[in-house]
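Schema walkthrough. Field components (list of strings):
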Amino acid sequence: MVNKNKSKRIGKRLIAFAAALTMVTASLTGCGKDTAKAEPAPIENPSIYIAPIANYDDTSIRGMDISSILVEEASGVKYYNANGEEEDLFKILSDNGVNYIRVRVWNDPYDADGHGYGGGNNDANAAAEIGKRAAEYGMKLNVDFHYSDFWADPKKQMCPKAWKGMDIDSKAQALYDYTVESLKTILDAGADVGMVQIGNEINNGLAGETKEENIMDLLKQASKAVRDVSKEKGKDIKIAVHYTEVDDVIMITKKALRLSENEIDYDIFGISYYPFWHGKLRGMKNTLNTIKATYGKDVCVLETSFPYTDEDGDGFGNSVSAGDITGEYTCSIQSQANSVWDIMDSVSEIGGLGVFYWEGAWIPVGSDGNSNKEIWNEKGSGWASKYSASYDPNDAGKYYGGSSWDNQAFFDHEGHVLDSLAVFNPKFLTEGNQVDPKIEMIPEVIIEISQGSELTMPETVYAVYNDRSLNGEIHVFWDEGDINNVDTRTGGDYNVKGLIKDGATVNATVKVSYANLLENSGFEDGLSPWTVSYSMDSNPTDIQTKAADALAGEKAFHFWSGSEDEDFWVEQTVTIEEDGNYSAFGSIQGGDAGDHYVELYIKKNGETVAMFGGSYLTGWVNWHKLEVEDVSAVAGDELTVGMSVKCQSGGWGTIDEFCLYKD
Ligand code: CA
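Field assembly_structure (string):
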């Protein structure tokens, strides 16, 4: 458990309020100023349901990355505890059960003029300050060395400026020296360092190196540096390696194997697990459990997060939105807590060390996007400042701005703590927290029927409650008008509203699939039974296997001619079995076609009876769906569906997903 009584002083940013409180406390108790401190103010009665975790070890890591805290404070951001009082973020976190703080460290996140790159401008000195303040509230520190001057992740592991041009031996030595020096700075400041990450999400590189043998050389020196400092300072510091994309089981287990083969000295195999990006919880748990059992290492989730809202708070778009959330979760305070609880529960079940939440307090510096921009650049409180361009011109230098994470904090946009933070409190994780049951969300309802069949709406829908043990089917009343609007004779998507108890509503999507009379309508089986004709010297068409250029599946009908103006058509003929009206559609995309004309047509017994055309080659994957409708035909008629293209030489594109259906 966290010792909340160790602190010698109140966070210095509490100024007026803290000073007043200190005086009151001192006069009431007669204690000296040095020992007086604000009383704990945890969330006592959270509005969210929390289940107890079976056999929960309350010494587990309940960590929070708050790397942006110093620049947030410098930007004027304030945090409020459960009583609505402004308070030191470190105290709020500690009071609610957070027992570990994580901080990223960049070698030199400043340009030649001393302007910070942003994202907290976190060098070793910033980490020392954060670690010291964490220790004052009894929280340990995880030092996350990126070994770069700015963000390091699977997409980039840029070399620090000072190490540019070094051969691998010199770089490994420089990395050793830097690690020793930085770690001593952080420890000497008073931080209670319990863990050091030797690199951040190093799947594809480290400090500008991408060759595995070089990465291993660097890891060896990083590890040695931590062990040496640990010994010199008489401090038990665990070494963590950190990877991501844990859903790629083969890749991630191979990483663990290669560390073992190269005899890398480390204690903790750590991963990032963002549930909306990295697959199912069970997969993550099984993979970590396998690595733990195979290599005898501790395991830990070093990063996770979840949105409590879909709202952006600072005028800089967010990384994760409602559309990214699937399964029995939604953007809500209860779901945020559920997601963290689920990961804590899984890690606990396999005997893992615990979970760190990433940047749970990176809230807006203000609500006005325009004035925020100045603050982000000046204070470094956005993900990147304009000054980062000198180091990372192609990403940060182009797209710099604010917090893309403000909807995933445990504080609202104005800094008030959310009840979801209570999921870090070991009291609730062991005893649980009961609240009145209510429906939290209804997972997406999709009803698929084939064209011409009868629509029967389900009598119940599946409901997810705040207490998920109550999840189950509940009765629903569907809107009769919406049901009548569903034309089961015509394919397409229809929305049907429903009413569930307590006046809550639910939306269902009825998908009526077309009974397509064409064969191989998307060219997935090659060309046959389609035929191609052209009035040119050579055939400008082929079947292309490239999912990015196909409307669906992997293949599409492709055209290009570099030498001749193009004039071709592709068509398929079917014999009609039932009298009725028939319609067709097909899609096309492409470009560089100059003056051109594209046409979708239906022929009946060889004569064109319906057509629709225009200039639709407007750029790559700008798909255009061409439709023709209401061709009457009787049994025995032959209907031909086709698309023709006339364009200038150099024109290119693909045609895909034809359909001929009876209305
Ligand atoms: Ca934002």
